[in-house]
């Protein structure tokens, strides 16, 4: 799976250099030069990126404010801050607000690529490349541990039937899933299920997803359900 990185850097030449070097190493990189633009992009695409690379001294909304605002929206994507050479205060400030790493300028791109790769590889044991984990928006489900994560602050264990149902809905995001399809999926997975219990589990899942800013389960009368992911 190609890791997705958002680079927030107002130095156009440096941004292009980093993007090109990362892409040569099989990363997918989007580059923006403005903190507010980066915030809007993250607000519309929660959970889309595996890692954020942020220049601390951005004009307007600086990198520290951007990182804090992204965290406040419930997004727990790891981020690395670029700080000015020798600025111990910036490094400490960055680590205090939750930066996974702080790298001083001038940037050694080869080192940055290795650090980014190691961060993403460590995360892979938790969520990103785990075949047992599915994510839509700010909602993640581990179908083996049956742990549901909503945003960065809410986690809970769900029942086996809830896990199977939510996994199926997440796998079909923004698509109408009929009641017949759901029943067929449960039969295929050898889970006892009925039309009446389906409504009960849908109700429970809606309650569990109340903390999500981006995901909800909509009913289509007489047909089925749509797991809607906003602005994906």
TrEMBL record:
<dbReference type="GO" id="GO:0005829">
    <property type="term" value="C:cytosol"/>
</dbReference>
<dbReference type="GO" id="GO:0000976">
    <property type="term" value="F:transcription cis-regulatory region binding"/>
</dbReference>
<dbReference type="InterPro" id="IPR036388">
    <property type="entry name" value="WH-like_DNA-bd_sf"/>
</dbReference>
<dbReference type="GO" id="GO:0006355">
    <property type="term" value="P:regulation of DNA-templated transcription"/>
</dbReference>
<feature type="domain" description="OmpR/PhoB-type">
    <location>
        <begin position="131"/>
        <end position="229"/>
    </location>
</feature>
<dbReference type="InterPro" id="IPR001789">
    <property type="entry name" value="Sig_transdc_resp-reg_receiver"/>
</dbReference>
<dbReference type="GO" id="GO:0032993">
    <property type="term" value="C:protein-DNA complex"/>
</dbReference>
<keyword id="KW-0902">Two-component regulatory system</keyword>
<dbReference type="GO" id="GO:0000156">
    <property type="term" value="F:phosphorelay response regulator activity"/>
</dbReference>
<keyword id="KW-0597">Phosphoprotein</keyword>
<protein>
    <submittedName>
        <fullName>DNA-binding response regulator, OmpR family, contains REC and winged-helix (WHTH) domain</fullName>
    </submittedName>
</protein>
<dbReference type="InterPro" id="IPR011006">
    <property type="entry name" value="CheY-like_superfamily"/>
</dbReference>
<feature type="domain" description="Response regulatory">
    <location>
        <begin position="4"/>
        <end position="120"/>
    </location>
</feature>
<keyword id="KW-0238">DNA-binding</keyword>
<dbReference type="Pfam" id="PF00072">
    <property type="entry name" value="Response_reg"/>
</dbReference>
<feature type="DNA-binding region" description="OmpR/PhoB-type">
    <location>
        <begin position="131"/>
        <end position="229"/>
    </location>
</feature>
<dbReference type="Pfam" id="PF00486">
    <property type="entry name" value="Trans_reg_C"/>
</dbReference>
<dbReference type="InterPro" id="IPR001867">
    <property type="entry name" value="OmpR/PhoB-type_DNA-bd"/>
</dbReference>
<dbReference type="InterPro" id="IPR039420">
    <property type="entry name" value="WalR-like"/>
</dbReference>
């Amino acid at each position: 799976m190609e890791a997705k990185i958002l680079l927030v850097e107002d130095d156009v030449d440096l941004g292009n250099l980093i993007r090109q070097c990362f892409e040569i190493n099989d990363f997918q990189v989007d580059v923006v030069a403005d903190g507010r633009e980066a915030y809007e992009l993250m607000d519309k695409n929660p959970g889309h990126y595996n890692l954020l690379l942020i220049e601390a001294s951005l004009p307007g909304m600086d990198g520290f404010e951007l990182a804090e605002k992204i965290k406040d929206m419930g997004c727990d994507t790891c981020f690395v801050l670029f700080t000015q050479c020798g600025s111990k205060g910036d490094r400490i400030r960055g680590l205090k607000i939750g930066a996974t790493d702080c790298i001083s300028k001038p940037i050694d791109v080869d080192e940055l690529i290795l650090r980014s790769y190691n961060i993403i590889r460590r995360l892979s044991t938790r969520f990103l490349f785990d075949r047992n984990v599915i994510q839509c928006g700010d909602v993640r489900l581990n179908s083996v541990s049956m742990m549901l994560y909503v945003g960065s602050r809410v986690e809970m264990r769900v029942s086996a039937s809830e896990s199977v149902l939510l996994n199926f809905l997440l796998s079909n995001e923004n698509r109408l899933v009929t009641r017949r399809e759901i029943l067929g999926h449960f039969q295929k997975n050898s889970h006892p299920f009925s039309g009446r219990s389906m409504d009960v589990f849908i109700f429970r899942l809606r309650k569990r997803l109340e903390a999500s800013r981006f995901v909800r389960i909509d009913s289509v009368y007489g047909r089925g359900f749509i797991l809607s992911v906003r602005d994906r």
